[in-house]
């Protein structure tokens, strides 16, 4: 049962066990609510019997008062235990759920993120988890507790007087069926609402991020009109969903009230025939108010329950994605990076690389060059196992990288991307991300090698200056140099540069290249190779056969050789080193 609950509600094993405990105490709370009803019914029965026999009705009053106090005490204790079993456990599970999702996302390939809307992922990690936190602290245990406790109380009523019990309880399964039949339509409204709200959020974020470009192109009116349209759609879908939910819930709750009428009619009929006394009749009337309350509250929360089912499905979809796993420890024979007949496509039948083979040798600088869209960045990222190739093998020191855990593999890589990502922290801490235990002296040495000193010295607080979200207070070249400093600080044997010096001037570029020259393997990408110095080998990547043929003509004077859609050119290295 624990395993089934864990899978159904995307919980941890501990969370599933805590959930069972929460439902158990919710059942006890609902049953405890019936204890005062039982005490009251027993007291009334004793008073009527005393009056009928002509005895003093106050004789057993103390006993009933004590029973009433004990019933209230039992109710308080069960409420207290339920609170701890429910809320505290739910908040722990919510934290564990976020950690588990983050761990799953860490192991997913980049293709997953490329095919998913990042706003949707953020909503799943933050919004959906927060919604489930409220659901499992307020709705789900109460719902299951209401169903179980109602079933137990109903069994007791049926044993006491099946006729009155049937008159009171027949509306419960009928109203539950009414709500259940609306489930599919309700979920359809919820999913549509999520889509339109996400579209409105995306449009708003785009308008904010691209405000300068929108104004420069005189497109303000069009963007505002589109944003208003998306907001109106989201509003209308929300209203339609709420209207449908409200109609179903109100109808089900109103239908429950018919049970009181049938209980009164049945009780009066039985009393008129002498088959039922007054006290049991009153007891059933009082019980009706207590039995219907948990069910009515459950109906009020059914919309939230259905919404949570959609969110759980979204979460399970992420958890069921194929993960990039492998060996956490491996021993490469050197650091040669070898591509063996590699084919890769972001979309089916649209190959970016086709049957590509080359070797980036240890102790050499390898440049991947070619036109935009030729697959240079893709090849660099395949080398670091950001994706797995559709065909062929990528090896590091003879080890197939697809068999190595991504985190373990990247310990040997330092990477500088085209699009630099910085954090809203100081320059010092942004560089220290390359090596978390690095001393300030090591950070400063890496920054100096990456030519950061010149611009950092002009900042108000030097290396302790906060640079804003994604380095918004810095220029493109300054941001790029901080990213390069991270790579230098990491001191990994393999460095991948994805057009990393595109924003640097010639003087700084030359100094940075010299600082990176001590890498065991250096792979760099660029649209043209004339900007590179100290290159051991150049590999030309072409997007298609026509581009490869054109490149062959252009490179004829350089004695380039076409190899499987590549042009491979070797020249002696300007840097002479011995590598172990």
Structure notes:
The strands form 2 sheets. This protein has a 7-stranded mixed sheet, with helices on both faces. The relative contact order is 0.08. It contains 21 helices and 11 strands. Helix 3 runs antiparallel to helix 4. It is α/β, with parallel strands linked by helices and 580 residues long. A hairpin with a 2-residue loop joins strand 10 and strand 11.
Give the key terms.
580 residues, alpha/beta, four-stranded antiparallel beta sheet, 21 helices, elongated, disordered C terminus
Explain the layout of strands and helices.
Blueprint: H1 2-8, H2 13-32, H3 35-53, H4 61-106, H5 110-115, H6 118-160, H7 162-169, H8 171-181, H9 183-209, H10 211-216, H11 220-272, H12 278-300, H13 302-319, E1 337-347, E2 350-360, E3 364-369, H14 376-383, E4 391-396, E5 399-400, H15 406-409, E6 413-416, H16 427-432, H17 440-449, H18 453-456, H19 476-490, E7 494-498, H20 506-516, E8 521-526, E9 537-541, H21 545-554, E10 561-563, E11 566-570
Parallel strand pairs: 3-8, 3-9, 6-7, 7-8
Antiparallel strand pairs: 1-2, 1-4, 4-5, 9-11, 10-11
Helix pairs in contact: 1-2, 2-4, 2-6, 3-4, 3-12, 4-6, 6-7, 6-12, 6-13, 7-11, 8-11, 9-11, 9-13, 11-12, 17-19
Please summarize what this structure is.
With 580 residues, the chain is α/β, with parallel strands linked by helices.
Radius of gyration from CA coordinates:
35 Å
The outline comes out as: elongated
Structural class: alpha/beta
Give the helix proportion (percent range).
55-70%
Give the total of beta strands: 11
Q: Walk across the major sheet and give the strand order.
A: 6-7-8-3-9-11-10
Mean pLDDT: 79
N-C termini distance = 57 Å
pLDDT < 50 stretches: 527-535, 554-580
Number of helical segments? 21
Beta-strand content bin: 5-15%
What summary fits the major beta sheet?
7 strands, mixed
